[in-house]
Design brief:
three-stranded parallel β-sheet, 2 domains, alpha/beta, extended, five-stranded parallel β-sheet, Rossmann fold, 39% helix, 353 residues, single chain
Length: 353
């Protein structure tokens, strides 16, 4: 935190420049890869947009100043990446794969086997700076990453632990996390002033979760999904018809025992939804697990449909809305902007004229 520099953006420029220039100066070339990519975490897309502007203008300008002052070869951020929800869902796995591209060892030719025992991809474009939002909290397990910059204290301690845990996952490259605090933000200033105390008791500061296990909305959404997942993994050849009462009862018994340990007061609601799901499953004839053609299912006789997908209005059987993932939003909403009303107003004005 540097109040004298005037703004957090100025501090970002200095930190980004220092980390860019430090990479090539690491004495052992085999150690440079882990600290070549600077993974930046930002709390909002607005801050991320500001950082994109810094990468295009302020940071290159400051590198030119360093070149003139210290007579060094500047390392410009030529290969940058944005890892946020603004990217399409099919682009995110490709971006994560690009983060895995290692810096080719100087003693090896492209495509050859490195002295470190790894393969250098031919024409690999090692990412210099990656700007990420909270999308990296889970699922990004890349052991080559060792350098991170966190701009502003994350909203919760749990998020702070998850985000900072994305680097330093390999013993060869211990994680270096640089946290930039805003001097004008009281919360950031408080964390800066008690930095050591906070980190010595980090896990004691984790906030309690706001989700109540086995509450009725959770049971309605995921009880059948958890039970069927267990049933199909135990018996991959299991068919949904006729209703496999024994397998369903066995799976539900495991969940009920856990509910009894966590919150016995929810057992009455738990039993209600077990009876409801059993009645719905046993009532209709089910020939397929999926009630959608996307998974080669049967819209008429299927049992489950992806969360967010509308049920077939002509289907008399009840289909269960089922989440596809515990980590991402299942449904996407697409908007179409129409000019029909504008055209109608114009036509009305012309007719009146």
């Amino acid at each position: 935190m540097s109040p004298s520099l005037g703004s957090t953006q100025t501090v970002q420029v200095r930190v980004a420049t220092a980390t860019l220039q430090a990479g090539p100066q690491i004495p052992d070339p085999a150690d440079r890869d882990g600290y070549w990519t600077n993974l930046n975490f930002l709390n909002s897309l607005r801050e991320l947009g500001n950082t994109l502007s810094l990468l295009d203008s302020d940071i290159p300008d400051y590198l030119v100043g360093l070149q003139r002052r210290d007579m060094v070869t500047p390392r410009y951020p030529r290969n940058t990446m944005e890892l946020t929800s603004r990217r399409r869902s099919d682009e995110i796995p490709k971006a994560i794969e690009e983060l895995e591209f290692r810096l080719p060892h100087p003693d090896c030719a492209d495509g050859a086997k490195c002295v470190s025992g790894r393969s250098c991809p031919e024409n690999a474009k090692c990412v210099d700076v990656c700007l990420a939002s909270n999308i990296i909290e889970v699922g990004v397990d890349i052991d080559r990453l060792g350098l991170m910059t966190i701009v502003g204290q994350p909203k919760t301690t749990a998020q702070y632990i998850q985000v900072s845990g994305r680097v330093g996952r390999h013993p060869r490259t211990p994680g270096l996390v640089i946290t930039i605090y805003g001097a004008t933000k009281p919360r950031d200033r408080s964390h800066y002033e008690r930095f050591r105390t906070y980190h010595q008791q980090l896990y004691a500061q984790v906030e309690p979760t706001s989700v109540t296990p086995f509450a009725e909305p959770v049971l309605k959404r995921a009880l059948h999904a958890a039970a069927i997942s267990r049933m199909r993994q135990v018996d991959p050849a299991l068919e949904p018809s006729p209703f496999p009462k024994a397998a369903f009862a066995e799976a539900v018994a495991l969940l009920r025992a856990r509910a009894d340990l966590v919150d016995p007061g929810e057992l009455a609601v738990f039993d209600h939804w077990v009876d409801e799901r059993s009645r719905q499953w046993d009532k209709g004839e089910r020939t397929a697990w999926a009630a959608t053609t996307y998974f080669k299912g049967d819209p008429k006789q299927g049992l489950m449909r992806p969360a967010g997908e509308l049920a077939d209005p002509d289907n008399k059987n009840i289909t269960w809305e089922t989440p596809m993932s515990m980590r991402s939003v299942d449904a996407e909403c697409r908007l179409d902007v129409t000019l029909a009303y504008v055209n109608e107003d114009v036509e009305t004005e012309e007719a009146q004229a």
